[in-house]
Amino acid sequence: MKSLLATALSGAALTLLTGAAQTAQAADSFAACLSQLRGPALKAGVSGATFDTHTSGLAPDMAVIGLLDAQPEFKTPIWDYMAGLVDDERVADGQAGMARWQAELDRAASRYGVDPATIAAVWGVESNFGRTLGGRPLLTSLSTLSCFGRRQAYFRGEFFATLKIIQDEHIAPDRLVGSWAGAFGQTQFMPSTYLRLAVDFDGDGRRDLVDSVPDALASTANFLKRAGWNPALAWGYEVRLPAGLDTAGSGRKNKRPMSSWARQGVTRADGQPLTGGDTPAGLLLPAGRNGPAFLVTRNFDALYSYNAAESYALAIAHLSDRLRGGGPLAQAWPTDDPGLSRAERRELQRLLIAKGYDVGEPDGMIGTRTRQALQAAQRELGLPADGRAGQKALKALKASAAAKTPG
Ligand code: CA
Q1: Contact 349/363 with Cβ under 8 angstroms?
Q2: Is residue 377 part of a domain?
Q3: What is the b/e burial string over 261-298, where b = at least 16 CB atoms within 10 angstroms of the residue's CB?
């Protein structure tokens, strides 16, 4: 019977069966895992009723395990990262947001000691001022990450925190959507961060980082205050280095008094005097000695703690300066092919579409499809096919489009 069955099945059908068997196996082990998590969840303060109600219909989403293990296909140069996060559009949106929420920002600034531009800059980088919250249901992602893959212990804590938010904070599960790793809302807090640091600032008795802008802004301010933000300090400054400065001691953590940097000939790029006396500051060189240089204080470390990346903290810091009316960086990035703003990324995508390539919606997000289309277009134009969306690629596509236009 067994051999008869085997010979009757085509290879494709066997593969399907194997896939179905794997799915069934994953579902079985997921169900077993969830039942094992019930006890620890109750210990963490989740009621049996909450646990049962909100886990009964759950199915694992194995795509998040793929995202957990994904190696970045493409290392983003700092100038691409900064060009997309700090562009004229985000500055204009941020200034509009600051005007719209001025009273709440001022109130948050006086309560937490974090200035409005800094709060708004975090909001702009985290969720594009509440426009981009992520679309994955937290219960699904975090239960999957609790049962499969690396770091299950960490994600179990976040899964239980999500159940507690639903139980104690009365936020509906369908509002709890976010990144694949579980960061959610306008502040993109992890659920445990929410439980520790979110605040109710609009006075309705609920801490709502999804649908309440005042709650989101004040929670960000509270986060930074707890991370050590000092209202008397700037995050730091873009600086110019004297020729011959020994940069061996550079680095965010390698702090020395501002006055010591000043004595060595370091000056502010905006021409203001480098003051600050004995304020400790580290020399940050994100692209090496020939790119923009920054002296950063402990407030920069507070920004860093939000997402544990220096490029990320720098984007927030620079955006906050732009929101205060400051200009672009004085020193160019050390490249002959600078990055694109989001408006330019959309233009590049529209030019690719006009050439007949499928990049999906021209949304300004450079993903795999845009890169593949760009590589093909670069080959067509006789350019190095690196798939990087920079100024050179945009210029070449524009020239090609202009050459095709009659007249
Ligand atoms: Ca509230």
Answers
A1: yes
A2: yes
A3: bbeeebbbbeeeebebeebbbbbbebbeeebbbbbbbb
pTM of the model: 0.91
361 is known as an active-site residue: no
pLDDT bracket for residue 1 (50, 70, 90)? very low
Domain boundary among 268, 287, 306: 287
Q: Which residue has the higher pLDDT, 70 or 157?
A: 157
Cα of 268 from ligand 1 centre, angstroms: 41
Where a domain ends, among 287, 320, 350?
Answer: 287
* Residue 85, in any domain of the structure: no
pLDDT, residue 21, reads 74
Distance from the alpha carbon of residue 46 to the mean position of ligand 1, in angstroms: 22
Banded model confidence at residue 120, pLDDT cuts 50, 70, 90: very high
Catalytic residue among 73, 89, 104, 126: 126
Mean pLDDT to the nearest integer, 132-150? 96
Distance 182 CA to ligand 1 centre (A): 21
Ligand 1: centre distance to CA 308 (Å): 28
Report whether pLDDT(17) > 80: no
How many angstroms is it from 210 CA to the middle of ligand 1?
10
Torsion over CA of 193, 194, 200 and 204, rounded to 10 degrees?
-170
Q: What is the domain extent for residue 351?
A: 342-404
What is the model's pLDDT at position 312? Answer: 95
- Dihedral (C-alpha) 118, 120, 126, 132: value to the nearest 10 degrees? -170
Whether 162 maps to a domain, the answer reads no
Spatial CB neighbours of 159, under 8 Å, sequence gap ≥ 6: 37, 41, 139, 142, 143, 145, 146, 191
The total number of structural domains in the chain stands at: 2
Residue 370 falls inside a structural domain? yes
Residues with CB under 5 A from ligand 1 (ion): 200, 202, 204, 206, 208, 212, 215
Query: How many A from CA of 214 to the centre of ligand 1?
Result: 7
